[in-house]
Amino acid sequence: MHKKLADAEVHLVLKNNIISMTKKNGLSRRNFLVRSAIGIASVAVFPGSAISKILNKNNNKLNQKGEISKMAFEWKFNPRPYSDEEAKTLLKDVMSPETSDWHYNTHHKGYVTFLNNIEKELETADRTKANGNYSQIGELKRRMTWNHGGTVLHDLYWEVLGGDGDPSKGKDVLAAIEKEFGSFDKWKEDFKASALAAKLSGWGVLVFDKLYSGRLLNILVDEHHYGAIWGGIPLIACDVFEHAYYHKDGPGRAKYIDNLINNLHWGRINDRFIKFVK
After folding, report:
1. Is the pLDDT of residue 242 over 70?
2. What are φ and ψ of residue 258, in 5° steps?
3. Which domain holds residue 184?
4. Are residues 80 and 216 in the same domain?
5. Helices (H), 46-197
6. Is the pLDDT of residue 42 over 80?
């Protein structure tokens, strides 16, 4: 019963939309009848549920007036390359089993949740009230950048963890690192220093500076975005927010960074390097 009602409503809305669009475009009576007939025929061929699926696939929706408009973009909470249970074992030298769970399922997921909340609020935010002090649109834009950075960096963080730390399993990226830094050990020293120098909430990141120098650079990022390089493609991310390591190592950030480097999955890092750099 509910499905039939829903289909009937979609049919009616689409018919009204065809008629409205035809009138707005000032079509002749003949073209009006032809286009209306085609539209109604398409409604007969495609059930409302199928039309709804087509609209959803194209990120569209029907409003109450029967007009087609864009839906708010949906940001995805991406899976890790291992299950939550596997993470407890694979990442045990880097973080506590509890951290491997709530860092992903609470902190990381939270950034995606708020990205979607912001996306919806941006649909109705009043752009005319924007100014350099405070406005709703300004705060939404600021928090969008913050949550976007948190999402992207956490996706990478989980992707590169869970290995045995053997760089020889990433021969292409290892060769590029040795060319840029002189040796793997010199890269490691610089990467660790970058991560140690970030504020209490920040990241150490190996990036490929695609838009400017074409070099591999170790950078530090405060919070999720201060210090990020425009056009820099992140290849390795080390989260040094205190929640990433305090449950296991307390204030021992240096120990945590060493353990993370020893847990890197150089096969997946190499795949990313080939995909985005080579």
Report:
1. yes
2. -60, -45
3. 75-278
4. yes
5. 48-57, 84-90, 97-102, 109-122, 136-160, 171-181, 184-197
6. no
pLDDT at 40 over 50: no
- CB-count exposure of residue 99 (10 Å: 0-12, 13-18, 19+): buried
Q: How confident is the model at residue 22 (pLDDT cuts 50, 70, 90)?
A: very low
Question: In the chain, how many domains are there?
Answer: 2
Please list the residues that pair with 24 across neighbouring strands.
none
CB 197 within 8 A of CB 184: no
Contacts within 8 Å (CB) and 24+ apart, 184-192: 187/218, 188/261, 190/218, 191/218, 191/236, 191/238, 191/261, 192/254, 192/257, 192/258, 192/261
Closest CA to 223 of 95, 111, 104, 63: 111
- What's the CATH code of the domain at 160? 3.55.40.20
**Residue 60 φ/ψ, nearest 5 degrees:** -115, 165
**Mean pLDDT, rounded, for 141-149:** 98
pTM above 0.85, yes or no: no
Residues 6+ apart with CB under 8 A from 173: 235, 266, 269, 270, 273, 277
Number of residues that this document lists for the chain: 278
Identify the H or E element spanning 248.
helix 246-249
Assess contact for 78 and 70: CB atoms under 8 A. Answer: no
96-113 pLDDT tens trace:
999 999 999 999 999 999
